[in-house]
Backbone:
């Protein structure tokens, strides 16, 4: 079993690191808030480090899952970052949803130190992390991927190498672009059906067996109809992700009109105090507009 370090113990990182401990790896954890690290150690054993560098020192594989590009640069490239302490031949795997640009920065810094770096964002949300059923999309060197894949598989149902450095992040952007449009379409479909006087539970039961079926429909339609959004993937994080997608589109020339529009809708949700609600809360905008008429 590999000696591993895990940096970032949020709603995703904590259960992911937990799976590594359950599978018998020696795990050293780091979190910006020390109390989370101590709580994780109480549940899973292992060791707690005071800095990313301390956690990474001696580890064969270092994994991270933090909030955004600045957080990632701090733990990977900062004065007490992981890469400065990693041994030659080790592998750095980042699960943060971040830009392809920062993935390339980290890969270049790692290469200079003899450390292979993989960008490996995930899909599946908190439930996927807790149940060990994440989808992991990876960019980077094929040999490093082959070495890291058995470790990543402990908390994933699918781990796939998508191409060279940055390809994992670009694939995750496609994922978020698709989800944004799906959620808006589902919100519009439900509110249309409600206005038409249909039994929407029956409607969803029927159309989910046809071409309209999606993960969002299967897992969010019922809670959208019940107006429940105090769970899941927060609007604040989705706006961060869509910002990354739109920035990349400006670089590569892709046209994202629906994504840009949905991003504006999420900005309205935030302005109304809904930043921590699940992304399916888009439907509230349509209901608010309906009720105002």
Residues:
């Amino acid at each position: 079993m590999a000696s591993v370090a895990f940096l970032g113990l949020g709603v995703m990182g904590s259960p992911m690191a937990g799976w590594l401990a359950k599978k018998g790896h020696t795990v050293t954890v780091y979190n910006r808030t020390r109390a989370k690290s101590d709580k994780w150690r109480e549940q899973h054993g292992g060791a707690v480090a005071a800095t990313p560098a301390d956690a990474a020192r001696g580890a064969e594989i270092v994994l991270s899952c933090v909030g955004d590009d600045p957080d990632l640069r701090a733990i990977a490239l900062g004065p007490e970052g992981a890469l400065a302490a990693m041994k030659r031949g080790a592998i750095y795997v980042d699960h943060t949803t971040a830009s392809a640009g920062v993935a390339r920065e980290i890969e270049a810094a790692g290469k200079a130190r003899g450390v292979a770096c993989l960008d490996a964002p995930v899909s599946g949300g908190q439930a996927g992390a807790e149940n060990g059923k994440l989808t992991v999309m990876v960019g980077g060197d094929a040999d490093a991927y082959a070495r890291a894949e058995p470790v990543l598989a402990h908390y994933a149902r699918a781990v796939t190498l998508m191409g060279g450095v940055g390809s994992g992040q670009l694939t995750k952007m496609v994922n978020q672009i698709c989800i944004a449009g799906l959620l808006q379409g589902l919100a519009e479909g439900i509110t249309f059906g409600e206005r038409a006087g249909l039994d929407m539970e029956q409607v969803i039961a029927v159309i989910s067996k046809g071409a309209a079926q999606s993960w969002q429909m299967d897992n969010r339609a019922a809670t959208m109809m019940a107006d429940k959004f105090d769970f899941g993937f927060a609007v604040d994080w989705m706006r961060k992700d869509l910002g990354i997608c739109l920035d990349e589109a400006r670089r590569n020339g892709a046209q994202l009109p629906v994504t840009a529009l949905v991003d504006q809708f999420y900005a309205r949700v935030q302005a109304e105090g809904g930043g921590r609600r699940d992304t399916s809360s888009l439907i509230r905008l349509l209901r608010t507009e309906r009720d105002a008429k």
Notes: Residues 134 and 156 are 4 Å apart (CA to CA).
